[in-house]
Fold these 4 entries.
Entry 1:
Amino acid sequence: MYFHTLLTPLLLLLPSFSTAIEILLPLYLYPGQEASAWSNIFSTISTHPSVQFQVVINPNSGPGTTSDLTDENHIAGISKLNSFPNVKTLGYVLTGYGQRDNALVNADVDVYASWSADLRLDGIYFDEVSNDRTQQNYDRMEILSKHARESIEGAWVVFNPGYRAPEPLFAFCDMMVEFEHPLLDYQAEGILEQIPGEYMGKSAVQIIETPEGTDVEGLMVEMEQKGLGAVFFGEDCCYKVWNKELLEKMADAA
């Protein structure tokens, strides 16, 4: 009893720590010869072993139509990413805002699941998720998520509606992209204030068109203090331009 009495006020004096923010990295850039175009990404991952990266693989707006990944440069790049213990590799799958047939969506997941052991992915990144607040939409995404988890053991599932998702959808994913727009919009709309606290740790923002000189470190400190789950800052609109300095700033601040 005496020990407990002393311990309680001491615990109250200890600072609170939020879970470290992760980097959600949409790697849509072609890897180049022997994955040379991804070398800056490999370097940043390697020099920041305590930072967790969720890397989205997108060979052809999805996996393509064959179960055998035949592009040697993608094989080299994905194998390299899988060698890092602080990386989750995720396969890109389009859902078409509810308009793409479930069978086609599941077929893409099945292709990723069929890749060889050295190319094995850790999960699926569902893009263009509808944020319609309807039971039909909730049921659809539950079905797609369930198939992903049945096809890839222990699959990490990310939904990307691009803007504030209906709360029931959080039950079917591990991470939700709550914002994918330019930095100016992020700052003007106060996005972090719109995300419910109980879902903050499962939420991510992907910021595009980040101007040169942006205080990325300061923004990430605020995000981490709020408990945001993951973030990415991109220089262009479509994740095809990779600024090593910007990538390093993100990793340093995570």
Entry 2:
Amino acid sequence: VCRKRNETKENHHSFIMQGTENIYLVHRAMFYLASRRRQLIASAVLDKSALEAYQEAKKANPQETFFLSTQGKEDLDATMLNDGQFDAVITSKSGSVFPCPTVFYATLNLFPADFVNNSKTIKTGVTVSSFKALKDRPLNSKYRDPAYPSGYMPFYIYGSGGEFHIDHMLLRAPNCQLSASNVNMFLNDNVTEDHFRDGCLLFAHNVEEEAMQPFLPTSELVGGSGPTSKNNFFFKSGKKFQVSLFKDRYSYKAGGPGLANVDYSDRLATGEMVLGTEGDVWVDSETVNRDPFARRPPVNDWIDEFNKIGEELK
């Protein structure tokens, strides 16, 4: 099991799509699978027909989140990042915790089947080119921080052409992937587009990450009607944050710990950030923490059966 968990081999890869004109891809990381044990944010170019299909679908369905997944198994380093090109599929999902593609999840046996088959295919046979990493940070245990951030929550912020996107810095395990596309920035200082193009750090103040960790399962964070439901969760459409921006002092491939350590004299700007539409905001506290090779106790199968019986008797 340990050998399989730590094999860096070809695999199916899935990305959250961000941007409208200039495309950015946020890799759906996993702490317990070597081929996906990294926080990767990349820029990419889609072929013309795929870009148009994506833009039309996004305009028509602002509540949906869009994903780009490899057509087959790929090696992130040897082929995707080295060659900068691969074939892919674009899908979308509205209100789902786990979007497709089916082959991706079925291969790893990660999730229940009812989460797999409800996605919408937007475009197949997509040619991705100019695939280039902005941030490619390893998530191995030796690179993780000894404690969660206290008094703030750190993100990477990046973008171009007036479009800005964020992805929560994964500094410790367990964690939660919090990503947002097309965030609105109201800054008190001028920041050049070069800073955003290479990616800098954004601290959301008065967000107690240390107190929030570990996060509840995604379905409890973005579903239901309780205190942690979608209507009450801190990371949702329209939410406002007081923020500070800092230059990322480390190389794009640097490993931690300490990646969020900054000198406040090097602060680039302060201001307010507002999250965009529902489809532009993504929350997932399960994929990143799931161990596909964890042994499932036999009693869990019986619990599942009893739960099914209970649902049928309602």
Entry 3:
Amino acid sequence: MENSPSSKDLPPSYTDSMNASSSVLIDAQPIHSEQRSANRTSIISALLTTQIVPHLQECALKGLSKSTMLLIPSNNKSLQPPSSGDNKESLVSAFPGEVVVDFPSTENIHLVRLRGVENTLEFWHQQPVLNQLERQLKFWFLQGRYTLFGERNQDVQPGFDRELNSRQLDTGIYTRPDWRYAEEQIIEDGEVRLGVEMREVCLRIENEMGLYETRTGKAVVVRVQLGG
């Protein structure tokens, strides 16, 4: 008569296997929501500090009240000219002969090619990221005692309440102004109208053959208009 196998010779049960797998996962370092939020805020703040705010300050020195920024994500290959190479710095101006063809020629266009693994299309395509960029830019204007367009006659309290008012994008209460129709409305002195969106843009770029071709791709579009 053969001896029955002992418990040591039997394969582990399904429950034991799951417990072992769970213990491995528990030992791994978890990803906290606070860490993800802090990293997102850091990337957005860096863009504001190094690109958007300096450009707006330059526009103010020139007496310009309106500007449109096109922020091209770092991995958007369709809008990268062949001469861009592996340069890790942001290219803040268009290449010679490069033209943005889907905006009015009279519009003040500022083109920025972002660099770095943190500025990918996947990151900037997230609507919460665009909303946060718009909120932080609005708060920067509120600190300069500007009033958001369309809110001058509303009961908006100063300080923290004004910051909360600019956060209404998260709740769906705030509605972005339609730029096609708001152009006809007068923006009073001390008011600012701005918007942030991801959209298709079209560039005329010189290719490797020295010929010009039209390319399209996604970019973050930041529009700012000051009253007065």
Entry 4:
Amino acid sequence: MKMKFSLQWLIFCCSKRTPKPSLKDDDEEDPWPEPRPHGYQLYPPPPPQTILSNRSDYISQLRFRKYWPPENTPDTPLFCLYRLYEYLVIDDVTGYRNTIEYFCKQRTWAVRHIPDPKDEDPARYAFIACLPALLKAAFNARIKMGLVRECPAIMSPEEAEAYRNMPEDEKTNEEEPDWVKNVKPLEQTLYMVSHDGAVMRRSDDPRASEYFKRINILMWGPHIHFTWSSMVFTAPPTVLMVISCRWLLM
């Protein structure tokens, strides 16, 4: 697709940065006073039954969470996996799809290398063990279309076509880590609740997620495929340089 660019317009748009928390005046009220229990990610989060029993309160905590990883800790694939768990338990579609997309953009986070959390809670451990399969399915569907995780954010039409035509044996498909195979199914079925309060009760329901059903968790199949993709432009080199610089600053 050919697009006409105004360099001044492009620079103006690229100059809009995502706002970050700024220092407040002494007399200005801070909407997230420190310390705040839900200001940081809680690791590990509560078991799924506990979250569901206080779902509305937990949703409020997630909405007011100021930081992603736990306090004074860099983000890791395992922290991100537990955030994905939280959003899936409360059935926040936007939350869990954004988290899957975020994981995808961390190019050094191979799904097969996600470490075993060795979670002490059986229900939470079983739920977590299903998540690498979701990531594998979401990422491999994009890889099949040529949207490999290592491709640049900005591509020329020629580069995009080269990725699409890449032989299958040269593409790095994602795989589940070995530890998920050792997680045992729950003895009692865990029934998850949808965002509108519906509960799936039958294992033969075609809407039930196969990823979770295999470990005795019944829930609707989550929408794991996201729309983020690399951008392909036909533009002068100076314009592409501006876009590439903007990407590096993000």
